[in-house]
Amino acid sequence: MCYFCNVENKVIKTLILVLALMVNCVAWGKGLSEQDHVLVTLNDGTQIEGYVTKYWSEPSTFSSMNRVFWLASGIDGNNPKRYSADEVKSIDFIVKISDRNYEHVISAEVANPSTFKPHRSKKQFVHIEDSTSRGVIYWWNAIDSQQMQLGAVTMSTIYGVCFEGENIIVPFLTGNVISLNALRITYKKTERKDLIEYLDKRILKGGSKLWNEVPRNPMMFMDFVEEYYSKAKP
Fold it and tell me: What's the pLDDT tens digit per position in 132-142?
C-alpha cells in the first residue's frame, strides 16, 4: 500500500489519485511497506511512529475525505488506531523520495463556502506546493464535486491559496478547471475584495492559453497576486 513512489511533482499526485481509487481493492493493513512508515505529530507535540493502514485519501464516507486515517504501530498492520485532522498537526513520511517535500503533510483549515454559509470551513490534510512572500499554495486530492453533480465519481487534485496574514486555505483550481467562486465568497466583504476582482479579470482576460497554463503550473496564480500589489497605489 505505497502512498508515494520514486516519481516527481504531478506524476506523484497522479499516482496518489490512482491509489485512492484502488482503495476498495486493498485490504486494510495488507501489503504495508516502509513507504507507509510515518511520524505523526499531534497538536500537543506528542509524536507517534507507525504505519498507515488506511490513508486520508481513502474515505469511508465523503465527509471523512482528507480528514481521517488509520495507523498501526507495526508493519503487520495489526490493531490500527483512528486519527483525525482535528487532533493531528502534521504527518511526515520516513522515506523521502522528492525534493519538493511532498512527504510532509499538515492539518489546516480549508474554506468550503456557499452563498448562505460564507464562512464554512473544515480541518483537513494538505500538502504544501510552494510559497512566496504573498502566500502559500497547497494541494490535496479529493472527489471532484462538479463531476459528481454530472453523475461521475472521479478524483482530482485541488489547489488552494492561503494569503499572507490569513489562516485559511481557499480553493481556486480543481483538476484543470480554475474557479474563483470560493475566493469571491470568502473575501466578499473584506479588504481583499479588490485583489479577488483583479485576479478574476486577469484570469478571464488571459483566455484559453492561460487557462491551460495555470493547471500545469499553479504557482502562476501567485504571480498574478504579485502583479496586483505591484500595481496597487501605495
Answer: 999 999 999 98
**CA distance linking residue 186 with residue 168, whole number of Å:** 10
Q: What is the pLDDT of residues 20-32, one digit of tens each?
A: 444 433 445 568 9
User: In the beta sheet, which residues pair with residue 158?
Assistant: 140, 174
Output 107-113 pairs: Cβ under 8 A, ≥24 positions apart.
Answer: 108/138, 108/162, 108/169, 109/167, 109/168, 109/169, 110/140, 110/160, 110/168, 110/169, 110/170, 110/171, 111/160, 111/168, 111/169, 111/170, 111/171, 111/182, 111/186, 112/182, 113/182, 113/185, 113/186
**pLDDT value of residue 10:** 57
Site of grid cell 487557462: 211
